[in-house]
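Listing S7. Sequence submitted for prediction.
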Amino acid sequence: MNARAARTAAATGTSRLLTRPMLLLLVASVGGMGGFYLLLSVLPLYAATAGGGGVGAGLTTGAMMLATVLAEPAVPWALARFGHRAVVGAGLLLLGLPSAVLCLWSSFPLTLGVCLARGVGLGIVVVAGTALAAELAPPGRRSESLGLYGVSLGVPSVLGLPAGVWLSDRLGFEPVFLLTAALTLLALPAVAGLPARRATRGERLSGDPDGRKGDPGGRNGELGGRSEDPGVRNGAPGGPLGAAVNRSLVRPTLILGAATFASGVLVTFLPLALLGGPSHLAVVALLVQASVAPLARWGAGWWGDRHGSSSLLLPAVLAVALGTAGLVRLESPAMVIVSMVLFGAGFGAVQNLTLATMFERVPRSGFGRVSVVWNLAFDAGMGLGAVGFGLLIDRTGYPWGFAVTAVLLLAVLVPAWHDRRYVQAETT
């Protein structure tokens, strides 16, 4: 692409989303997240049936999310020091290979150790992938690009969440552990085609993974020292968590954390809550939720590029809350499925809308920090949801536990409403 074509693409927003580095990023993400989702609901079952009960099931997800949260702030430094290829490759290996160890020994402490290793791998893959997806996006299509990336993360959940539960029920746990390791190994070749360093605007427009074709937009994707995207807000402080103190990011972070709190509850405990119910209801419910979420995530990205990402946050949070509340009726298969449709639609939209909103409020140089903060909120929410719900249901049972979770989500409607008013005030 020559300089005039690059300028035209930047002005019209018509440059294509699926460049070669973006396609390889999607392939690597599918493999890594396939290994993540296959075991996400299986390891809690494995721990519970081994005598850990509800607390043990919650601790498996909680341990993984704790390791993820601790690892994520170091990922931007690792990317700068070692490059995308080495770091993402290490993340894929940590997500998959430790699970094979469980085929040799079976103990709850070892299970927690595997969860910790997988958590580090997850933190690497999601932080590096999110930042790279934003950097590779063509001008004017970042929300849509993030939506496409979200679909690549959602496809493994569509297959992996229900397939892991179904396979472990039919074949036992060991084949699922081995399949997880195999999936992440198969994704490793795609890592070789990722950019060796941070992507520049020239790479985004030309599809050149190593940036050898130049950087017509200037250093680090900025034009004349200014962000190429209108409305970007500068001034975020440095450091891996510097973006967290940007006040405009607080509300989207809280909203995401609350939604993933509920997600941690569902993926960890829904199969356990439905034990003894209609055959395969848990598998179907997880399949429905996992199928709806990536479609909603992509659709929210399309909407956000045209109407603003914050405009849908309020209804998205409401859908998550109503979907969680519907699980009070666990005895009704129809209510469970309808609840999963609502939850999946709201949760998928919340993921894209909060991420795109946060990227809109920082300069391009802050994308790495935003990726860390967003993923920290995501994973901390999931971990807290799993551990907290595990402690709660020993006292309340599953229906009341889901009701309490829904009430917590309804409280998040307040920051969602204020964020909408904040955006309206900024644009008038």
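Caption to Listing S7: primary sequence and predicted structure tokens for the chain studied. The chain has a mean pLDDT of 78. Residues 42-71 form the longest helix (30 residues).
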